[in-house]
Write a sequence for this structure.
């Protein structure tokens, strides 16, 4: 049970007592909290159906609501809006039953579903760069949001390990080590246990190979040939690919671990290759695939806007399978192996056309009978010049550089005394990592997904305004208050907050509003809604902390305010966890 559900029950009872059953209640949090806590517009559509005056009808309903001591004030506004203000006593009485529940009042949907999340999408042998930040942390937050509401969640990193980038690496390595046994199709022995390169070597080689392929048609042809041979499962090239993956995945995992991003699956494009070959053969036999200029393509119909979509290229004229075909096989795998009822792709908005083609194709070949698929796009991270973020010399900003910028900015604030005045140097070093990463994540997540935003390391680590450090500081303050008072963090039935000040009421109402914010965020796959809620909660707590002293208050008031602090910390930590934000004990 949550507060909104409780209010709905009481409004429903009032409608029924007034003789109106099966009415649409339309109960929601008031958009004018200065006037009321909740509002119901249900009298208006009901009056239209009954052909009655909506205000007069609303007055009949309000008469019954006024009899309930749960409400301090109930009134009719405008043409028939019902405004309801809950009594302070009622707000206090339901605090423990609602806020001490597993999800602080959020009620799981009656039926959960299995959702697969495709996010991350790093390419083997390439350093993670600034463009990998958003899919990782947005995808993680949306996955955590779905898990919070009760869905079974499966996150898949979906490694790029099977296409032309692998062929480019092999082409470059073959020029550097042409006698390597990996490139000899006739070789029958054991392949070396030690790779003839390091992970760093691969990261250096790839941009060189990519540049050569743009300048030298023969080099590109060679890379394409390696790609075809790899996809035909030439033994030496498969062994070489395994070395690529082995060296790359470790560093990729480490980077994602630093960001607090995890995946249930570490699969790549190559994992569905056998399934893909069977699918392609089936589609050929069914006449869905047809030849066009040497390639095999599929017509996929119209876009959502009604325009004809370009055909999906499954196999190119060189005989190599394309990403779109691999994505189709991956959908089939997720449906058949994991029972996916929904698949969400957290991928750059600029890939919208690709996903329209893939989703239309999946629908056409019968993969989506019991499954929905969505592309959750997002905007770009820009520099202060409002152009895609790069290093100062105009180079590619790696993810490592981006994290270090944030962590160093947090450490700078601590060394300046803005944060961490009572911390040792060792504590500053450790806590700056937590604060820097959480600041980086919050600065991204607080924006609507589709919007671009400007990266500013000084602003994102500020302790003022809508920033990660502002939120963390509020939660650390909550922890400190309870620790100094000797209070356990566990919520007890005796933790009853009484309201003697408007700031207490405002904070308690904010805590009760959490389920509504979670539901809105879930319905729209919008982590920024949770960010907004957590920021407002921090604001309300800081106002409460400033206006409602605890240490010098009389014992009953002190106990009440410590209880309210416990409830605030409990809800705040749950929301921080949904966003993937780590909270330090000191700051």
């Amino acid at each position: 049970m949550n507060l909104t559900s409780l209010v709905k029950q009481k409004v429903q009872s009032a409608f029924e007592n007034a003789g109106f059953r099966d009415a649409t209640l339309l109960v929601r949090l008031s958009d004018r909290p200065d006037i009321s806590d909740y509002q119901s517009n249900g009298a208006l559509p009901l009056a239209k159906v009954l052909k009655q005056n909506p205000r007069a009808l609303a007055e009949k309903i309000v008469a019954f609501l006024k009899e309930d001591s749960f409400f301090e004030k109930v009134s009719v506004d405008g043409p028939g809006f019902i405004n309801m203000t809950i009594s302070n006593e009622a707000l206090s009485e339901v605090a423990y039953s609602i806020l001490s529940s597993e999800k602080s009042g959020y009620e799981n949907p009656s039926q959960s579903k299995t959702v697969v999340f495709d996010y991350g999408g790093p390419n083997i042998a390439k350093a993670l760069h600034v463009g990998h930040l958003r899919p990782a942390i947005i995808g993680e937050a949306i996955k955590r949001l779905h898990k919070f509401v009760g869905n079974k969640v499966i996150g898949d990193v979906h490694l790029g390990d099977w296409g032309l980038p692998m062929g480019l690496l092999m082409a470059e390595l073959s020029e550097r080590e042409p006698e390597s046994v990996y490139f000899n199709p006739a070789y029958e022995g054991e392949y070396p246990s030690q790779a003839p390169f390091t992970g760093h070597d691969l990261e250096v080689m790839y941009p060189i190979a990519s540049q050569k392929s743009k300048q030298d048609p023969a080099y590109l042809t060679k890379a394409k040939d390696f790609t075809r041979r790899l996809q035909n499962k030439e033994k030496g090239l498969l062994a070489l690919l395994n070395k690529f993956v082995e060296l790359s995945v470790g560093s990729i995992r480490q980077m994602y671990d630093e960001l607090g991003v995890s995946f249930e699956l570490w699969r790549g494009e190559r994992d569905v290759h056998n399934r893909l070959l069977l699918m392609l053969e089936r589609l050929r036999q069914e006449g869905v695939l047809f030849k066009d200029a040497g390639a095999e393509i599929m017509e996929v119909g119209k876009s959502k806007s009604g325009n004809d979509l370009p055909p999906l290229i499954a196999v190119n004229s060189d005989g190599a399978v394309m990403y779109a075909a691999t994505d189709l096989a991956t959908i089939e795998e997720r449906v058949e192996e994991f029972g996916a009822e929904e698949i969400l792709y957290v991928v750059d908005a600029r890939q919208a056309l690709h996903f329209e083609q893939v989703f239309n194709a999946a629908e056409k070949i019968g993969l989506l009978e019991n499954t929905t698929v969505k592309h959750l796009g997002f905007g770009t991270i820009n520099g202060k010049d409002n152009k895609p973020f790069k290093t100062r010399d105009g180079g590619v900003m790696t993810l490592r550089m981006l994290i270090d910028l944030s962590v160093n900015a947090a450490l700078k604030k601590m060394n300046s005394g803005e944060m961490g005045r009572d911390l040792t140097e060792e504590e500053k070093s450790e806590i700056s990592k937590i604060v820097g990463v959480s600041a980086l994540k919050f600065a991204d997540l607080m924006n609507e997904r589709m919007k671009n935003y400007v990266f500013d390391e000084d602003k994102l680590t500020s302790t003022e305004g809508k920033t990660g450090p502002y939120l963390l500081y509020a939660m650390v303050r909550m922890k400190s208050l309870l620790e100094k008072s000797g209070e356990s963090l566990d919520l007890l039935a005796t933790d009853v907050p009484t309201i003697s000040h408007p700031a207490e009421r405002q904070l308690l109402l904010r805590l009760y509003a959490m389920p509504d914010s979670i539901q809105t965020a879930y319905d729209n796959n919008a982590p920024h809604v949770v960010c907004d809620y957590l920021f407002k909660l921090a604001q309300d707590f800081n106002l409460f902390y400033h206006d409602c002293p605890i240490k010098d208050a009389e014992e009953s008031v002190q106990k009440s305010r410590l209880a309210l602090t416990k409830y605030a910390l409990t809800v705040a930590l749950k929301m921080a966890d949904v966003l993937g934000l780590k909270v330090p004990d000191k700051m």
